[in-house]
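Minimal example, chain plus EPS.
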Amino acid sequence: MMRYLSAGESHGPCLMAVIEGLPSNLSLEREKINDQLARRQKGYGRGGRMNIERDRVEVFSGLRFGKTLGSPLTLSITNRDYENWKSNMDPYNPPEITDDAEVILTRPRPGHADLAGALKYHHADLRNVLERASARETAIRVAVGSAARQMLTCFGIEVFSHVVGIGGVKGEPLDLSPGELHRRAEESPVRCADSQVEEQMIWEIDQAKKEGDSLGGVFQIMVTGAPPGLGSHVHWDRKLDARLAGALMSLQAIKGVEVGLGFEAASLRGSKVHDEIYYDNRNYRYFRKTNGAGGIEGGLTNGETILIQCAMKPIPTLYKPLTSVDMISKKSLEAGVERSDVCAVPAASVAGEAIAAWEIACVLREKFGGDSLEEMETAYLNYQKIISGR
Ligand code: EPS
């Protein structure tokens, strides 16, 4: 079984994850993880924090001479900003109260975990909630996803993404391969594959910033090379679309996940939604000319590219704050303001790739099992042999 726990506060000393279930003898390159962390830090519309951080991974267990041991893999990323927060985030003692000392946060931001978290965990200081709710946690999830991704590469599976909309700006679908969409997104400050749409997105972000507002958007994740038969139709909790949707909804600020045509399928006739089946006599495989299903039918991969769209709400911290209530005086006041981003959709799409990579890695491990990469590869090749020509 693959599983991991992450830990860490946004302005605490570090973020950590303990991962269990990767096969032994998997080559893990630290620089590949660092490359993914650097990708997450980019994106037009981000706030000041990314000028402070240079996210890099440290490995504390489970890896020897560059290969996994099969034991728990512990990853960590230092929060450079902790230096500026040492007294306010001290694990042991509260700061000495001086005139300059930061008072506790008591004005919850609409849309953030602040209020419900403070009620649930009985905290007077909203910082005790927001530090963990922060999207800073996505940094460690990208590191975890990068480890999973390095395993997927051994099986020819790749994960791509691009941003399709920011605020009200949305481009027309481009008839390009997942790899090409991704390549173009990598060169764009908003991860948009269409340069004209990119310009409008940047304008929209600038406007929102001027007006003290924030923006959400939509990104698409594309997974290529997954063999048919990952996930399962037999139980609700083994259906791959459900697992991907659940996992992606756990990414901060994601409010909706669609697979393939998603909501659009509801208004179309069956003949316009379902992908007709053909057989490729040369490669002994079934294929489709369309992909409305987004590569998943009945909770199982069908061998086509997995397509997922995620909708991200605008970040709740507004420099022109919304109305809230002070939790001590109960008076109506403006919500608190924390340093934040105007738009983090490009970064979220990189985090989304990592989350999807993890879920695909989980179902790949479930299908091909074993304790070592060698065992897994043997089972994979055997399966390919069994289904070839069927
Ligand atoms: C983030 C770090 C945070 C925010 C953002 C994402 O840093 P700070 O709070 O110090 O500015 O920039 O988090 C949020 C928008 C949020 O609501 O928590 C990061 O590393 O991605």
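Residues 106-387 form a domain with the Chorismate synthase, AroC fold fold (CATH 3.60.150.10). Residues 10, 47, 49, 81, 134-136, 138-139, 315, 317, 338-341, 344, 347 surround EPS (CB under 6 Å).
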